[in-house]
Amino acid sequence: MNKPIISINLRPLNYAGLVNLANRVASSLAGNLNFATPAISVLALQAAVTDVINAIAVWGPKGNRGSHGTLIDLRSKALILAQLLKAEAQYVMTTATVASGTDFVAMQNIIISSGFRLANVKSPQGILQMAQGFQRFVSRQLDPNQVKLKWRKPLNVTSKSNVKSYRVLRGTTNVFSAATEIGTTTKTSFVDTNTTAASQTWSYWVVPVNTEGDGVISDVVTVRVPSI
Fold first, then answer.
1. Residue 217 banded pLDDT, cuts 50, 70, 90
2. Distance CA 211, CA 215 (A)
3. 218 forms bridges with which residues in the sheet?
4. Does residue 226 carry a pLDDT above 80?
5. Given this model, what pLDDT does residue 122 score?
6. Of residues 139, 20, 132, the one with CA closest to residue 81
7. What is the pLDDT of residues 13-25, one digit of tens each?
8. In what order do the strands lie in the sheet with 132-137?
9. Distance between CA 60 and CA 62 in Å, rounded?
10. How many CA atoms lie within 13 A of 196 on its CB side?
């Protein structure tokens, strides 16, 4: 499990959202033994919420708004509430980290008890599945003694950056264990050239690589490659 992180995905102009979040946090922190000395007291949060609610009332409903001055006052009070929530979130994050250390499950539970919500943390990629659609690509732009290989990213890739590179291997038989790596690439294509004096029948494989190491080996592609 990754380290949990607090998410405050609210703009100061989202007045209702700020009020709802502050009310939830204030209610959750009241009497919460995990947070005995909050950076912003429950009373201070509630007072800031009241200020925003009163400023919203003065500004008026849509279609019957107050003056520009009342809007400026509302924005100012909303900004103060947003800053208080950020300070409280930092306190909660620090307190939960100290209390739980590297026990991220315990840390998550402590944070949730504060009323704050957690950001969505991407799961680790894990071992990559095989590259899809591995095939020879025929093109008139290639010399007769060249072979272009193409493929698509593995199905379980959640982000392009999760594939660090692709290993391209070649063998004189269709036995992978006897193949030799002839190159690596960050692209989804590779061009091989027969520089020998005779035509060759070569078998190719591609292996995706990420931080977990080699992924699943692709299907084999066997190609007759003319000489120079």
1. very high
2. 10
3. none
4. yes
5. 57
6. 20
7. 889 999 999 999 9
8. 132-137, 146-152, 189-193
9. 7
10. 9
φ, ψ of residue 202 to 5 degrees: the values are -115, 145
* Sequence-ordered list of residues with C-beta below 8 angstroms from that of 50, at least 6 positions apart, any chain: none
Give the model's confidence band at 8: pLDDT under 50 very low, under 70 low, under 90 confident, else very high: confident
Q: Long-range CB contacts (< 8 A, 24+ apart) of 178-182?
A: 179/203, 179/205
Burial class of residue 143, CB neighbours in 10 A (0-12, 13-18, 19+): exposed
How is the chain classified by DSSP, letter by letter?
-PPP-EE----TT-HHHHHHHHHHHHHHHTT-TT-SS-SS-HHHHHHHHHHHHHHHHHH-STTS---HHHHHHHHHHHHHHHHHHHHHHHHHHHHHHHHHTT-HHHHHHHHHTTT-EEPPPPPP--S--PPEEEEEE--TTS-TTEEEEEEE--TT-SSGGG--EEEEEEESSS-GGG-EEEEEESSSEEEEE--SSS-EEEEEEEEEEETTEE-PPPPPEEEEE---
- Per-residue pLDDT band for 86 (boundaries 50, 70, 90) equals very high
Q: For 18-66, what is each residue's pLDDT tens digit? A: 999 999 999 999 999 999 999 999 999 999 999 999 999 999 888 888 8
Quick check: 182 and 202 in contact, CB under 8 A?
no
